[in-house]
Each structure stands twice: as structure tokens, then as C-alpha cells.
Amino acid sequence: MKSKLIISALLLSAVSSGLSAQDTKEWTLKQCIDYAVAHNISIQQSALTAKQSEVDVNTNKWARLPEVSGSASQNWSWGRAASPVDNSYSDTHSSNSNFSIGAGVPLFTGFKIPNQYKLSQVNLKAALADLQKAKDDLSINIASSYLQALLDKELCKVAQEQITLSQQQLDRLTRMLQVGKSSPAEVAEARSNLEQYKLAAVQNENSYKLAMLDLSQLLELPSPEGFGIIQPETNLQFATLTPPDDIYQTALTQKASIQAAKYRLDGSDLNIKVARAGYMPTLSFSLGLGTSYYTMKGVDASSFGSQLNNNLNKYVGFNLSIPIFDRFATRNNIRTAKIQQMNYSLQLENTKKTLYKEIQQAWYNALASENKYKSSQSALDAAKASFDLMKAKYENGRATMVEYNEAQVKLQKAESDLLQAKYDYIFRGKILEFYKGEQIQ
Q1: What's the pLDDT score for residue 83?
Q2: Between the CA of residue 419 and those of 157, 204, 404, 428, what are the distances in Å?
Q3: How far apart are CA 279 and CA 330, in angstroms?
Q4: I want to staple 170 with a disulfide (CB 3.0 to 4.6 A). Which of 35, 76, 190, 192 is the partner?
């Protein structure tokens, strides 16, 4: 009965594992980036900022339209007041209703309205560039975390291979001990080595899980459970790297950070013009009509309709306002706008320098990672050859257990170094492609 329960538990565990594996969805790098861009809160906030800029453009677009408003008021009064009949004073109760509608049209505002409209359009372009920059930055972070997870995943495979190799060695020594060809000390040392490799495998597995957790959090996933990544084709092809100066010239015309800084600098000219409008006269046109209805207690009054018709009045007018002294407000607004323009100019220059430094660093890092990969490949080939020779010598009794373990450790380190160099080169290559305007995928 007990054996049946054990078998049932094992079958249930296998079925659960199979279902869990089926439920796991594996994502490509592009899928991760697309999902993160669609769900990241910072991206959504940048998108809302851009939408607000669109609203500002629409507001300034229609600023030249007439502004129409209507009003109505109702007043009651009582107490001593002059009679409209004989101008004598007496205690009275009266009511007064007023209705009016008017419109005003700005004719000239010192070019403030058209410059504000142009400025809002430039601000919209800057907001859209900021949104794109936020997407680009997120894409870089996703790519870095994605490749780190892939590296940790492959390091887990290397650790498992070392465990298999150590297990084989332990089994071999155990069999030799049974026939008296190995010592208990050698078996104990082999078992100790196996446990060390198992410990390293656990540590690598934990690193992989933490890397997957970091990636899932960047994607705004509620949990890393059921989330996996696809191992892409990683056949490295080393092509001649584009010189950093050429990449920089391309990036100047395409990178969102540069475009945003340029738009803000362009907008600063318009901001100065808007401030200078304070020195200019303004001219507006207005028109309207109004009427009223009046009653007094004890006095006969015309009907509501006839009073509204009889009391109807209309007006048309122009209003010219000439600034004479505004307590230096306009002057200081212009000074502030010019200071802001200088600041935007410095920001653009600093953004260009930062971009050039980043491209230089990315280019030299890519070159260094390429050289590191080639060296690591040579080191791995040498480590494999050395391990194979040492394994043969050890099996023939011409090498000690210590020498064999040292060769195995060197082999594992060479494999790990090659994996790190490979993914480092892949990441550096994607960074250079990003600066050249290519999508990360």
C-alpha cells in the first residue's frame, strides 16, 4: 500500500511538472520590449505629458476665435427709494432683471497669439521626443536584463555538466575501490568535489531566478511564475565595427534625446518673442446687446415682453491698450526667456557630448568584448585539450586527484568566461545598433 502511494505521488508530481512547463510562456526579446513599452508606468506618464501638449496646441490654435458670453441677473430691493413717477421718496419694493450677450475678438496682440501657437507645436514635438527617449532607455534596460538572464541560464547548464562529469568520476572511483584499485580518501575527495559543484549549481540557479525576477519586474508582470525567455540564435559573426565618429553623425539626426534638446532650443526663440509682446499695443473688437425688465410695487409696469423690447440696447466698440509702465515685468520676462535660452543651448551641447562619450565607450567596449571572446575561445580550446590529457593520465595512474581537479576547475572557468564574453559582445553590439538608429530585437 505504501509503495502504491509513493508511485501515485510521483505520477502526480510528474503531471504537475508537465502542466507547469506547458503553462510557461517563453518570450523573445522583442516581445519583452513591446510589452514593457505598453505597460510601463513611466512610459504611460510620458505619453500623458505628450497628450497634454496636444491639448495646449489645440487651445492656442483657436485663440483668435471670438469669445462669446452671456449673462443674466435678478435683483430685488426694498426700503426708501425715489419714485420713477414724481421723484418722491417712499418705502417701495422693486425687482430688476437684466440680460446681455457680448462677444470680443482679439485683432492684434503684438504677435503673441501666433507665437504661442508655434511654441506649443514645438513643445509637442519635444514631448514626443521625450516619450521616444523613455522608450529607448527602457529598451536598453530590458535588453541588458534579458541577456543577463540568458547568461545565467547557460551558466546553469555548465554547472550541470560539471556535476555530471564529477558524478561519473565518483562512480568510477567507487567501482575501483571495490576491487582495491583506489583508496577511500580518493573516493571521499571525489564526493566532496561533487558536492561543491552541486553547491555552485544551486548558486547559479538562484542567480538565474533573480535575473528572471528583475526582468519580470521591468515588464511590470505580477509574478515571474509562468514566465520564460527564448534562447536566440547566437552564432557570432564578427564584422568590422563602424567607426564611432560615423555612428555619432548618424545618431545626431536620429536620437530622441538630441531631437528633444533641439526642439526646446528652437522654442526658446519663440518664448522670447512671446515675452516681447508685452511691449506692443493690443487692439480688440467687441459687440453685444442687453435688455432689462423692471417692476415696482404699487406701480403699473409694462409687460415682460414689451419691456425687453423697449429696453433693448446694442453696442459695438474697439479697445486699444498701449503699455506705458508695467513695473519692469515685461523686461524681466524677456531676461528670463533669454536665460532659459542659454540654458537650453548648454543642455543641447551637454547632450551631444554625453552622446559622443556613450558611443565611444560602446564602441571600445564592443571591440574589447570581441577580443575577449576570441581569447576566451582559445582559452577554452586549450582547457579542453588539457583536461582530456589530464583525464587520460589520471585514469592511467600518472596524475593525482589534485591535478585532475585543477584541470576540471580550469575547464569550468574557461566555459564560464566564454559565455560571459559572448553575451557581453551581443549586448555591446545591440548598443551600437541602437545608436545607429536600429531597433533592439
Answers
A1: 62
A2: 11, 13, 23, 14
A3: 7
A4: 190
